[in-house]
Batch of 3 targets.
Target 1
Amino acid sequence: MNRQISRWTLAVAGAATLAGPVRAQTPEPETPSVSGNTTVHLIRLLVEQGVITEVQAQGLLDQARRDALAEQRRQPQVQEGDVRVPYIPETVREGIREEVKEEVMAQARRENWAAPNTVPDWTSRITLSGDVRVRNESRFLADDNSDLIVDFQEWNEDKYDVRLDDDTFPPLLNTRKDRENLMRIRARFGLEAELGKQWSAGVRLATGSSDSPVSTTQTLGGGLSKKDIWLDRAHIRWTPGAWSFTAGRADNPFVSTDILYSDELAFDGVSAAWRGTGMARGGGFFGTLGAFPLEYLSDDFPSDEQNKTESEDKWLFGAQLGVNWRFTDQNSLLAAVAYYDFDNIRGQGSQQCFLYLDYQTCDTDWSAPAFMQKGNTVFLLRDIALEPGNEAATAQPQLVGLASEFQLLDINLRWDTSLFRDYQLRMAANYVHNLAYDEDEMLEHSEGQIYNNFDFNGELESGSDAWMLQAAFGEGLDLKRSGDWQMFLGYKYIEPDALPDGFNDSTFHLGGTNAKGYFLGGAYAFTERLSTRGRWLSAEEVYGQPFAIDVLQLELNARF
């Protein structure tokens, strides 16, 4: 009997214990009570069955009340403003869990993180970008232009024979016949890859009619033939804090305009850029250093001789300091000063070379420019020996080189201001001066072999200065939002030897130096990624024979 009572006592204690948590989730009375709960009913049942006596039952009830009081004391006291959470049945909680689970999984599938191992890791480190431009271009040339403007790029490619012959002209540019409605395209596709903390790499492919450094535009037609694709960018970049170091073929690291460097020009080499802070309202100072190989001497030059030439490489070295200063909430000023040294790009006159003995090169052929547009003063590089007894018939295939050295001071200013509503005004100025320009030294260095840029009296006509003024007005000058628009106008003046003619904008005066004139136009953004632009550029020569060119461009630009 005592064992049976002990078992039932344990059962009652267990029931009281199980009942406790449930009681804690319901409103508690002011005094502890066990009346009407599972424990009381169980004790009464034991009395009715004769298992325990009334005295024993009363003892059990007293113990249950003491347990209830102790439980109440252990529970947090309800303070004013406390909120009680009602008891939620397990079935309801299970339903809520399933509903939330389904919603989360659906979102995970939409955002591609439900199963992270199903997507390659490299996709999270790659950023793709690109753009497509479709352009209609017309070129209008004045009827009174000179028809004797020499194409020196083609001259060097063909090694034009300068023997006096009334029936033979050097390669000449088209200067009088218009070219209307040329359909042209540009397509570029690139990627940037994160390689880890502070490291990245980039590659970009682009169209282009040739390997010209200043344009990736491709003229359509050609019997519907496929268009060329070129490697336009390939670089690795390290960015520790405010510094950025780049090696390879990358964007222009300097603040500049297109009178010096075309917007599409890529820089081969290495650069280091620093972007600091320190202005009271915002912005700060910046600086850039760079070294860029323009041309390496061929490893086997000259190919038809045993004795090879020592390295004669051409380089561009650049340094720039500037400040980007936001001096009020509506106004900012960017100012930059740069120095560029185009090392070893001037042509070098050769020693006497005996091409009539079947030699193919002269010792300074390497100094001819890899690429020219037009405008720079050039001179004949080769001192070609005439065959004895056959002087008049001796072939004289010539190359031309640059007569001036180029060490440039480049100053850029740009002011941005916000006007009424969302209108913006941007004004910019650029001045370039060739510190190495010296006419007397050019004449001496060329030994009287300068071929162009003479006036009617035989005097050299050139100069060392270039400048540009431009202004833009509109709403969202960067055309990054639907409905943004702008209008712009400007004026350029570029003397023949102010800068190398091979690297600047290929549209104004169709590229090069010895040009002056104005440009104007406008642009409108249909969407965030689609815009249109129209430009009119009117230019003529600064010195020399008349040569006026007007260019009209209408285009659609898409980026992604």
Note: The helical segments are 2-24, 38-48, 54-74, 90-111, 152-158, 439-446.
Target 2
Amino acid sequence: MIVRLGLAAALLLALVPLHLSLGSGLPFAELWPALTGAEPDGVAAALLSYAAGPRAVVAVLAGAALGLAGSVLQQVTRNRLVSPLTIGASSGAWLALVAGAVAAPALVAAHGIWFAMGGALAATGLVLVIAGRNGITGLPVVLAGMAVNLLLQAVATVVVLTNGEAVRSLFIWGAGDLTQTGWDWAAWLWPQVLGGVLVLLLCIRPLMLLKLGTEAAAGRGLALLPVLLVAVLAALWLTASVITAVGVIGFIGLLAPALARMTGARSAGGEMLASLVLGALVLLATDALALFAGQYTRDLVPSGAAAALIGVPVLIGLTLRRLRAQDHAPLRMPEGAPRLRPGLAMLVAAGAVALVLASLTLAPTAEGWHMAWPSDLVLSLRWPRLVAAAAAGAGMALAGVVLQRLLRNPLASPDIIGISSGATLALVGAVVLLGGSIHDFGAPVALLGGLGALAVLLMLGRRQGHAPAAVALVGIALAALLDAVLQMVLARGGADAVMVVGWLAGSTARVTEGQALALAAAVLLLTVVAVAAHRWLTLLAGGEAFAAGRGLAVGPARTFLLALGAVTAAAVTAVVGPIAFVGLIAPHLAALLGARRSGQHLMLACGLGVVLMVLSDWLGRTMLHPVQLPAGAMASVIGGGYFLLLLLARRGGIAAGRAA
């Protein structure tokens, strides 16, 4: 280990001149004279002294802090999948800073670290409560972190869209940007990192005893709870310090400890030291790649986005190899009613009609709420949004039912397993590579991305039997990859960035009459096809052997239904943007109401999807009038809370089963 760690430290030192040269434009031969000169001579030397030099120092400090934080969190939880990113600390800190920048900008500028620390603590605490004591050591804590991340990102999107001017300067910061214009942040960051390191030095022996097990550690007189609390707080302090200084940089806290163990680190102190060095090395190398790529692109490449591009495949590899027996077990959700009561479907339909009428006629005005049939002009503005929202809700619900029944996985909705992310990634990637607007690219590009994501999911999940945890974690990785590309777009800043955020939140505001009608026709056709194939869905839900024994050609039927779900999700995404959680909530609610047969499940879920999206679109238009929020953002806030309740119900079901 010592030899390998020494090589890593030597590589870190050797990488510094390359990083400085890329950041300043100075050739290697001129670096040392410029570094030792009293005053900068020329633009390149000035860049070295006031930009490249501080950037290298901040990269080393931030990488070391994140690597150390990840190592400590993994040792405390005894879970190699835990990092500030996967337990929600990063998204919590970021949301707190964004909200603080709107509510109290001067206070955030002076004391941003406390906002970030509070947000990280709140998000991490919520994740740990959802995962439960027994879930911390496995994949449940990562699933809980995913749910919290999605919910906090939806809330952050609402804050950004309602306060675009106030937080526009935070776009680049949110991408994890290491750009420096002086030594101020370096001078601020190093005492924060040093303080965290000194506190964690005192935790080395307790963490070493913890490796023997909680009972063995307690038997040696170790008071576990206080020590673990101090260690977690120090790790979160390091994370909050980095986010305050340079923004959100994910995956370093996951990569560095994994690399440290590969170097042979076994003791608590050895893993912490190796993670510190390797975290600095990985982030410095990643930032050097970002600087190099920035020389050949019109726009800067955020370091956080570059780290995500590297970290995504590592996350997939680590998580799929770490699946345990209990992670393959099916997730048990509330059973609900044994059968669908007569008239319930009609009640849902009546509720949808009532919401449609309210959306068309009820709206706030300067004098208060007013209900009246809209004028021709107002009607021409409202009905395309209404039709698009209803079609999007039905389409995502349809895709959710098909995927959940086909994969026998209650987490298999288009957004959770990454199909929506794949479609969105294809559209945003086309904008990045080819230029233009997202609206210039249509359903074919989105369909290509959605089918590609589905292919990756099936390929990676086959060996795991499409276990719920494996499917959800591939979705996490695809969402992180999407976020990396998105941050490159947002780093450009300006009004275009706000427009992209609005579209990514699932907006119906820019939908034309033709697009709304085309989407409605497509969803209607796909629904008819799905209902016609409901017998295939019923047979495949019982297992491949069961379906084959009853004469079904399993391969073609399975491929057809998977493609049907992907096509539906891609069509919705191409028109209104990604819609999160509707494909998860609507099928669950339909099952809770007693829709057991596949045909019933499809139709009732589609009706509930219409209700959810029409309600979200109406609330988005009226709740903060005259400010309008995208329907998808509203659905995400509602659905994120529902997803958290599902995970809590799962935890309760597991606890009850063990007690029995």
Note: The radius of gyration is 26 Å.
Target 3
Amino acid sequence: MADQTKTGENNTNDERAQRRVRRQALIDAGVNPYPIASEVTAHAAQLEKDYANLPDGEDTQDVVSVAGRIRALRRQGKAAFIVLEDVSGQIQLFCRVNDLGEEGWGLLRQLDLGDIIDATGRVLRTRRGQLSIAPTKLVLLSKSLRPLPEKFHGLTDREVRYRQRYVDLIMNPEVRDVFRKRSAIISLIRRYMEADGYMEVETPMMHAILGGANAKPFVTHFNALDRDFYLRIATELPLKRLIVGGMERVFEIGRQFRNEGMDLTHNPEFTSMEAYCAYSDLDGMKRLTEGLFKAIAREVCGCEKGHEVITYQGQQVDMSGTWRSVPLSEVASQVVGEHVDMDTPIEHLRELCRANGIEAEDGWGAGKLLFELYDELGESTLVDPTFVCDYPEEVSPLAKRKADDPRLTDRFELVICGHEYANAFSELNDPVDQAGRFAEQVAAKGMGDDEAMGYDYDYVRALEYGMPPAGGIGYGIDRMIMLFCDQPAIRDVLLFPQMKPEVVTRADIASQLPEKTDNAAASVDVIADDAENGAANEAARDASAPALSTGLTRDQAFALLERYNKDPFHIQHAETLEGLMRYYAEKYDPANVDFWGQVGLLHDLDWEEFQDPVQHTVKAGELIEAEGGTPELVHAIQTHNSDNNPELPQPEAKMERVLYAADELSGLIQAAILMRPSKSVMDLEVKSLKKKFKDKRFAAGCSRDVIRHGAELNDMELDDLFASMIEAMRAIAPDRDEWLKNHPEQ
């Protein structure tokens, strides 16, 4: 497979070189392969419509100019057939040497698939019934130097598609359709809101105080003010200031930024719409939402009025009629099999959480426990549009309390197919109540919640001037696009989703540069800097390196471990790391599985007996060398403590970076496993692990900074690292799970 891949890359590079030669030949012949302008008088789709009744074999005298990319090219003697693709579709060019003349025919012989051309000629229909243009003039508008993927074996790798979206759009017409629909949906949303009396506004992207949602922000430094600001996580508080100022109906469609992981429904940079309506309430937000979603279903998805039914990922979603509203506690009751609400004893709610594999914190009240039961178990059961109402005040710091039960808030979330699409409130406008809730958020931040809001003095001051009762709602636009375009992942509806940085080598850069430029230009080395130290080159280097030796058998290594470690937990942790390292070695370095395994087994050799953070692994090195271990084994082990001792080597090799990440994160995972009724990693989900990670009081000895750095070292998002490590833990789980069940005190 590796040889085939290399051969494919070489073929591509050869083709690029040949195209560069043809480009230069055109220039030498006086042909500009990148002229300034062209004239387009017709598009493929309109021509198909206008000449739908043109008989087979019939010519017209109608002359048109079309432009687009060559998607197919077939030469037959003195004729050639080109399939030209423009923004609307495809049209055939029926090229004949007598029509084009010597110059035009000569240019045609220099064309490649992917070139962008302009063709002028008469409209006709061939005897075989193909609508065509018979060009008398061809103009090359852009010479394509990089060949397109093969039609049937081309751009299918999702990572490549997202990173090279331009090629994805060229090769996959259905992708272009998704983004046309996205544009149509956003345009419709604006028209719908304006027709309902809302005014579109713009609010700042940078905030001095974190507020409007519970999320971890991106931080930037404002040089002019010499202080840090946050990229906004929500538009709520600025928009409600406008309600105070007398703007009765406002909305904003814009980007939000949350410094969190990426998964099927989350991207750190996303689009939302928030809307606020004075003198309205939650019912007003329900009517707005039903009307908006039904309008999109009709106009974009082609549904008939009164029968707004769409399909999302194989599930039929009925949006017609009046949507169901249900209290959160009722959904929770349905999934646990008994009635629960705010009056259910807290200890019983804890028991229900434990029975369903939900880790409940000591400080959680009834509202938070109810929410967790709903969030973990109930939300995914809702398919047709459902307004989940009556959220506990504990999880709704900006919503107004219900008059008949102040423990609950006047809030709903719209759930469809198990996903949240909107969040709405009857807005809190009591400044004293709001100030108290901000104070609670600040307290939560002090206890380690890095997603809690700050105290916004100016917002409370605005409320002190008086804000009318108001309904407010926020929509996840990207999720709405996913729903109406039937796309499974948020990356499929973002033109340029966030991606890990690409490794670009000196050779990659050199292949693009001209032999000389008009002015002074930087060298390849200066441009590339140290790009060749990237993961791709390291992988190639590691693949060609000789197998590594530890100098010890596995039995010798384990005997050494037992000599200096008597605590069963330390032995178990060492064996877990051994299993994880062997698991990852099979993926990244199959020739050195045993070496990776012994690195994991002995990484904490000296900790139990010596417990010196600075000298940790230094003493281990001495013990290993005395036993006959190799310097390579010692070096690899010592890298994972370089944070505490800068004299130790940094983790650079893939093995060392995996050890760094696995050591700390596996400890957090094991702590999370012990909280689960099953005491097993088999039912641990990324979502649950993320909650533990965010709660700094849980397994406080597991450094969150080290875990984050471990993800960075391995070029992974946190969510991806969590998922990968859980998968690895599951792969080695049987022995570990059995041990944990028998040692619950650990």
Note: The chain has 28 helices and 20 strands.
